[in-house]
Amino acid sequence: MSEDLSSLKGIGPKTVEKLLNAGIKTIADVATLRPEELASILGWNRMKALETINDAKEKALDVAIQLLSLKDFEEEINGKICRFSTGSSAIDELIGGGIATNELTGLRGPFATGKTQLCMTSAVFCIKEGRSVAWIETEPGTFKSQRLEEIAENRGVDLDIEDDVFVIPARFILSPNHQFLAYQRVEREINRGTDIGLIVIDSFSPKFREFYPRREMFPQRSQETGRHLGFLQYLAAKYNLAVVLTVQVMGVPDAGRALETQMIEFSDKAMYGGHVLKHSVQTWLSLRIKSKKDRIFEAALFDSSYLPTGSVYFTIGPEGVTDLAAKKGRG
């Protein structure tokens, strides 16, 4: 099968250039687009876009959608996935060796429970492995470059401030749609040759809370949440990178629901985002303060498709998240 985009129906040299600029490099890429997406990229109507996509599917279906044996699937996954340390060997062991590429990891918890610190420490270890980090800040002032540099210095990691970390500041994230554009901007950077191994969204929730505040808006919120998470999973899989989301929590007024949340999520506070968010993230950690005086924190793995639940203790110091010697959480 020829990978020449110009062989597709309606595609000429100028159109090929537009597709390449949008990160669409193969016939299989075209085959997996929605008509609305291709129409938007090329300035076409939906019908013309659909004809081109159908032509691409005929030419590339066996490439766009592969049917793998279990053996081939396991070899592909085991040979592809890598993990970035959280800074704590206890947390790493809890989540299977560290923050995994090719999946989404969620960190939920109240204010000042270590969510951002864990992200920063994992970012340093990603850089140590030779890959870059993209950080999407949705709340002003939450990303502090000095803190990242402090963690890197204390971990003995050389940090190149020009090439290792790319930040999209909160001033550009004015709505959920701006947040989605930020993901697309990161993909453009990847297509320009930057090897990004970790995308951090800190925090995923605020713009959704701001733009979908009322109960009758929940269906729209769910649809938009699904769009975001679907695209982030696509990025994780296509570029073998890790995505970490921090998620805000809120009080549960009903005692019965609070108890249920405590039993399932190791917290009596509910995360903001609903069931779409819960089901779309592969690994969930719940963070909380165990002792403010002694700076003891707890990380609980409450949901994973392949790991048992459990919890461990950790602390935070100049080197970021690190182990709390000889302390263990409930299993």
Please specify the SSE layout and strand pairing.
Elements: H1 13-21, H2 27-31, H3 35-42, H4 46-64, H5 70-80, E1 83-84, H6 89-94, E2 99-100, E3 103-108, H7 115-128, E4 132-137, H8 145-154, E5 165-168, H9 176-191, E6 196-202, H10 206-211, H11 218-238, E7 242-247, E8 249-250, H12 255-265, E9 270-271, H13 274-280, E10 283-291, E11 296-304, E12 310-317, E13 320-323
Parallel strand pairs: 3-7, 3-10, 4-5, 4-6, 6-7
Antiparallel strand pairs: 1-2, 8-9, 10-11, 11-12, 12-13
Description:
It is a single chain. Helices cover about 45% and strands about 20% of the residues. It is α/β, with parallel strands linked by helices and about 325 residues long. The protein has 2 domains: about 60 residues, DNA polymerase, domain 1 (Orthogonal Bundle); about 250 residues, 3-Layer(aba) Sandwich (Rossmann fold). Strand 4, helix 8 and strand 5 form a beta-alpha-beta unit. The chain is globular and about 65 Å long. The C terminus is likely disordered.
Shape: globular
Poorly predicted runs are: 326-331
Helix and strand run = HHHHHEHEEHEHEHEHHEEHEHEEEE
The chain-level mean pLDDT equals 90
Binned strand content:
15-25%
Q: Structural class of the helices, strands and pairings?
A: alpha/beta
User: What is the CATH class of the largest domain?
Assistant: Alpha Beta
Distance between the termini: 52 Å
CATH fold group of the largest domain: Rossmann fold
Total helical elements: 13
Please give the radius of gyration in angstroms: 21 Å
Main β-sheet: number of strands, strand sense, barrel status? 9 strands, mixed
Spell out the CATH superfamily of the largest domain: P-loop containing nucleotide triphosphate hydrolases
How are strands sequenced across the largest beta sheet?
Answer: 5-4-6-7-3-10-11-12-13
CATH architecture of the largest domain: 3-Layer(aba) Sandwich
Helix content: 40-55%
Number of strands: 13
Number of domains: 2
